[in-house]
Amino acid sequence: MNYNIKRLTKQYNGYTYFKYLVQPNIGGEINARNQLVEWRNWCWETWGPGRELLWSTASAPDAVWAWDTEHKNKRIYLKSDAELVLFQLKW
To answer: In angstroms, rounded to a whole number, what is the distance separating the alpha carbons of residues 19 and 80?
Structure first.
């Protein structure tokens, strides 16, 4: 498995909107960026347009996914167990 899954707690932005975050667990900054791009493209095709996390929580609180690249983060946020299962089945 080339990613880590974290269940969100209050310490994470997006806690009240999303249940999980997924981040690459592969070596190298470029590899991690490329992995995030692949995931983001797949999420876009699967669930429709997404937004950067802070934009999503401010203007689309019903979104089922978002991404976060602020402060060198490389994360995909998922709304519920249903989205996580589908992500895991794909990746």
So the answer is: 5
Domain boundaries, the chain: 3-90
Q: Find, among 58, 82, 12, 46, the residue nearest to 23 by Cα.
A: 12
> Where does the pLDDT of residue 17 fall: very low under 50, low under 70, confident under 90, or very high at 90 and above?
very high
For 29-41, write each residue's pLDDT tens digit. Answer: 999 999 999 999 9
Residue whose entry in the numeric block shows the structure tokens 């979104």: 63
- Asked if 3 and 20 count as a contact pair (C-beta separation under 8 A), the reply is no
Estimate the share of the chain in helix, then strand, then coil, as percent rounded to the nearest 5: 45, 20, 35
Instruction: Name residue, tokens 């209050």.
Output: 10
Degrees to nearest 5, angle at CA 25 with 79 and 66: 25
